[in-house]
Amino acid sequence: MSEDTIFALASGPGRAGIAVIRVSGAKTAKALQRLGVKLPSPRVATRAKFTDPATHEILDNGLVLWFPAPHSFTGEDVAELHIHGGRAVIESLMAALSSIGGVRPAEAGEFTRRAFLSGKMDITQAEALADLVDAESRAQARQALRQMGGALKELCDDWRHRLVLALAHLEAVIDFPDEDLPPDVADKVWGEVRDLESRITTFLNDKHRGERIREGLSIAIVGAPNAGKSSLLNALARRDAAIVSATPGTTRDIIDVQMEIGGYAVTLSDTAGLRETTDHIEQEGVKRAQKRATEADLKIALFDGAAYPVRDAATEKLVDENTIQVVSKADVLNQAREIELDTGENMRPTHFVSALTGFGLTALLQRLEALIKQKFDAVGSATVTRARHRKALEECADALARAQKADLPELAAEDLRLAAKALGRMTGRIDVEDILDVVFREFCIGK
User: Fold this and answer.
1) Residue of 435, 411, 4 whose CA lies nearest to 167
2) Among 445, 429, 433, 432, which residue's Cα sits nearest to residue 111?
3) pTM to 2 decimals?
């Protein structure tokens, strides 16, 4: 760990009523004294006048908090300077700290990196902190808080503990074949290995739920030209994001709108109308629409209410278990109901909506929210949220599978060691130096 004492603005940049500068390292107490601040009682907000170390000019009048090691976020001596949030005040305090020997501005993620190196958190918790800072929806924040609470860490630590114990028993069988070991030792080892492989494989079979919540879900609106896709997009987004025209083929490329549904970050996409056409540009738009529909987490299959009950075949082909069926232009239909049950084989609800009057939009949003929660919510459970997690767990599961097929117990033991090593990389127990820079460079300054 660096011997430098670091500092950074921990609050957001720009003009504000209050700003917070965080300082961490062995020279934190010295830095406070050089700023004219008497060391306060631990964890007690104390009034202080901050002065320039060279001129003794008063720079600001605010609060200081002192967190002596090891009872701090980084495990080092930490101080927080709560000052007025004007740019001039912030810049003068930052310049004053920079003038103190052994004190320098922090690099991105350096506070959290020091917390990891001090054993205050593992890598999954550090990544979760970054996710919490970046969270734009309630679901993303909930997932990050679960991860920060150690849900994934505890699960991986338990798996690794069981695996290391099984490996120790297998090596005992290998190293002491003539000893009077219990006859069922080997059976217990392989029973444990099979159980671990099953649990990890099941855990990975989650349809990338955690990654999708972290990155945001995608919903594509598909349908024939003039079915009302752009109008529905604008109505759901509550703004004119897409051009609405009676001319077929107006939307030729995908139009994305960022919004939140039920606390989940969602990208809602308007796509080109599905039809046969000789226009090369429109043909490309149709290809992109079909591709987006295939890749989206959910689809809204929109059927033209003016043609109801006839449904266009191209849209009908895209209906699957991830699709909500919607009929547009409910204002022109006679005796239209907000929701009715499809009489076809799939027996899925069909929603009737009107972008013009707002009819059915609330019910449609409620249905979207319920479907999102059903497919992606994971309250109280650990989740895979990054490609790094998935790769390490896949390597672990593969090694466990190989161990059970190994011709020699020595080869099986090596595979179990590789499996334990993969789990260790998850939380940072082993072989982490090569990934630390990748993890922490994603952080903002001051974290």
Assistant:
1) 411
2) 445
3) 0.73
